[in-house]
Q: What sequence folds into this?
């Protein structure tokens, strides 16, 4: 070797070992120019470039070194790593393999090989690498972390969780293990545990944007919107040019009713990313508050909603449609149903936009349904997020599953939700097939199409994103909605709407985009819930049991401001009494409370003398409270069904103001079926008078209780709607 080059190499190595990388870089660059084939210079200079994160330059230098000596394990290892770090994972694989072949005990080489394979989605092969590391060093926490990440990618969630837990046991301060564990817990709705994991991740890495974004999403799911907003603010401070942070911030502001601020936040997200479909999708729905702080001009708001929908439709150009499906159903016009107006036109306008996006997605994925069958059992599919102990299951689906004639009809259940309980297992044991847990929309669609379903029923369109995405596709020859969300879907691909004779008026069909089918009586086969009531500690809430207890069990958004005066009038007529509301969500309760305070104050009444908000109760305590209550005030415009049925179970008199639309006629339908029509009010004054009489006239109240007890069995296990549904299905599927 040239003595001058040898001296320069020695100087460079000394500088390199002393971490004076700039000097080493300068010397070695000269050496490489003078002696392009000098192996040591190429290798060391490649390492220096890698340390400076100049990975492409490092890879070029190390490639030259590898060509000179292809059997040097160190060169192969460093070259493979440089290629991976520069994003050339596929090119790196041959060198990773060579490195471990030459040095099979180099655990770092195996780790990098496994990481590269994972980046290429070759997760099964990557697991072999990580297992090789663990076999040699069972205390290598990073190996367990990466093994967990591979299992997570393969959807082996129990194995992934076991690996993350092992990594955490070995290294409690391993940030990656906490963040990944939290994401799985969140995916499966273990919200409190997920929150703890992300909080631990933040304690280890206070500038973790990912952890704060995840934290805000969990707090949103827990309805802790104020805390979620703080987490969004922190995420924005960490990455002020991140569109997702502003989008999440807008969602929290919308939930808190701060709609103008929410619009600004969504606009900022769109400024950062002009093609951000989810952010653009949100804007029309800001014209539909979830709860009104005061009485508003509904017609003006609805005109704004229609105008904003038109703007969204124009914005969704063909170029934006490929990914737009991800926004469909993310936010929905759910709260329109709480306005006692005909929503068919508005919901159809919304439905047409959804349909355009989803039809594009279906065509893009070349998904076609089978032809209609002419004979054999009818294959009915039920698509729901609520195959569990839930009001939609208890009121509607359970009766179908238990009673449809198995000799004529196959029931195939597609359970979209993550929550599983005894009711889920019951459904699974009875159904012809039961599908749950596919991850993607495409997975769900493929499975539904493979089943060759003839009639696809969606019991609760409008309550769940995936349900809405699926309902906007044509996946069966006949597609039907039901009243889990008691409102027309507005979707072009929904052919029929299943309702009930007692929920509809003679001109009801004008409110539906679907063909309206009314089944006999209440349209469902309902069984009383097997709940044993427990006596609540009413005194802890400050409720005097010697005065009338007027139960108001609706969610805060069910109480429209134009009806607030009726509550004031009721207490003015009764005198001492207590209206009992429920604190379902703090921000909503705050708005309702402040609104009621104003209207009570106008009548020189103190709200706290007549109104109390209590925490949400479990079923046993709620039944106990109903048995202690004097009268149940059915919500006006959007009635209760399951809660009203529970009141009947407890012989609690219900006062219901029969509404214009099905959603306002559920309670009155129950009363009609029992023959207790004297509790159905036709106008505001009758409603007030009925509540007052029941509160003040104990003999009358006891007479009503007795009548409810004598007649309520007619509500239960009514098989007539099932037989009518079977006849309808046979008529549309097997008629010649």
A:
């Amino acid at each position: 070797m040239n003595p001058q080059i040898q001296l320069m190499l020695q100087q460079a190595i000394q500088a390199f070992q002393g971490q004076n990388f700039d000097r080493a870089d300068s010397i070695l660059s000269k050496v490489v120019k003078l002696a392009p084939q000098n192996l040591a210079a190429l290798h060391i200079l490649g390492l220096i470039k890698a340390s400076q994160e100049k990975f492409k330059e490092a890879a070029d230098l190390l490639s030259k070194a590898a060509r000179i000596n292809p059997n040097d394990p160190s060169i192969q290892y460093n070259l493979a790593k440089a290629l991976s770090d520069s994003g050339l994972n596929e090119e790196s694989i041959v060198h990773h393999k060579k490195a471990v072949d030459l040095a099979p005990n180099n655990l770092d080489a195996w780790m990098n090989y496994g990481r590269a394979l994972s980046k290429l989605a070759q997760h099964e092969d990557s697991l072999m690498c990580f297992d090789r590391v663990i076999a040699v060093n069972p205390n290598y926490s990073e190996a367990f972390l990466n093994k967990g990440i591979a299992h997570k990618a393969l959807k082996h969630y129990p194995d992934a969780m076991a690996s993350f837990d092992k990594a955490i046991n070995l290294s409690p301060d391993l940030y990656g293990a906490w963040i990944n564990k939290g994401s799985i817990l969140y995916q499966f709705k273990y919200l409190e545990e997920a929150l703890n994991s992300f909080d631990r991740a933040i304690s280890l890495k206070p500038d973790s944007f990912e952890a704060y974004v995840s934290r805000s999403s969990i707090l949103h799911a827990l309805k802790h919107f104020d805390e979620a907003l703080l987490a969004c603010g922190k995420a924005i401070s960490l990455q002020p040019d991140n569109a997702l942070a502003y989008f999440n911030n807008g969602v929290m502001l919308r939930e808190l009713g701060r709609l103008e601020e929410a619009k600004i936040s969504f606009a900022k997200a769109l400024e950062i990313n002009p093609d951000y479909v989810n952010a653009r999708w949100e804007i029309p729905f800001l014209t539909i508050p979830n709860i009104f702080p005061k009485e508003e001009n509904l017609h003006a708001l609805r005109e704004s909603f229609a105008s904003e929908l038109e703007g969204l439709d124009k914005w969704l150009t063909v170029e934006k449609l490929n990914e737009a499906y991800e926004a469909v159903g993310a936010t929905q016009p759910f709260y329109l149903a709480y306005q006692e107006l005909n929503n068919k036109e508005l919901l159809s306008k919304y439905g047409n936009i959804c349909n355009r996006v989803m039809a594009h997605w279906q065509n893009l994925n070349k998904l076609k349904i089978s032809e209609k069958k002419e004979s054999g059992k009818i294959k009915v599919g039920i698509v729901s997020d609520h195959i569990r102990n839930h009001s939609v299951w208890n009121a509607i689906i359970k009766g179908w599953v238990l009673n449809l004639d198995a000799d004529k009809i196959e029931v195939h259940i597609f359970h979209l939700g993550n929550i599983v309980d005894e009711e889920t297992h019951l459904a699974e044991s009875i159904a012809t097939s039961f599908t749950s847990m596919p991850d993607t929309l495409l997975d769900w669609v493929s499975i539904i199409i493979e089943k060759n379903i003839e009639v696809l029923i969606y019991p609760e369109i409008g309550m769940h994103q995936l349900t809405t995405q699926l309902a906007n596709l044509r996946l069966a020859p006949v597609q039907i909605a039901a009243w889990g969300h008691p409102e027309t879907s507005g979707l072009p691909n929904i052919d029929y709407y299943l309702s009930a004779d007692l929920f509809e008026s003679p001109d009801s069909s004008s409110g539906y985009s679907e063909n309206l089918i009314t089944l006999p009586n209440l349209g469902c086969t309902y069984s009383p819930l097997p709940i044993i009531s427990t006596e609540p500690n009413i005194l802890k809430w400050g409720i005097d049991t010697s005065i009338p207890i007027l139960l108001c069990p609706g969610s805060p958004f069910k109480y429209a401001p134009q009806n607030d005066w009726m509550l004031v009038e009721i207490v003015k007529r009764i005198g001492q009494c207590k209206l009992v509301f429920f604190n379902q969500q703090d921000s909503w309760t705050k708005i309702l409370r402040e609104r009621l305070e104003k209207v009570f104050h106008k009548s020189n009444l103190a709200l706290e003398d007549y109104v109390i908000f209590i925490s949400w109760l479990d079923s046993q305590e709620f039944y106990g409270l109903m048995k202690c209550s004097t009268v149940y005030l059915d919500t006006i415009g959007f009635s209760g069904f399951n809660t009203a049925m529970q009141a009947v179970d407890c012989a609690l008199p219900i006062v219901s103001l029969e509404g214009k639309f099905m959603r306002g006629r559920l309670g009155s339908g129950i009363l009609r079926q029992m023959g207790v029509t004297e509790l159905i009010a036709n106008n505001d004054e009758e409603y007030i008078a009925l509540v007052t009489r029941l509160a003040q006239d104990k003999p009358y109240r006891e007479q009503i209780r007795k009548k409810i007890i004598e007649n309520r069995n007619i509500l239960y296990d009514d098989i007539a709607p099932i037989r009518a549904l079977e006849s309808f299905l046979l008529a549309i599927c097997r008629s010649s």
In short: The two ends are 96 Å apart (CA to CA). The longest helix spans residues 344-364. The mean pLDDT is 93.
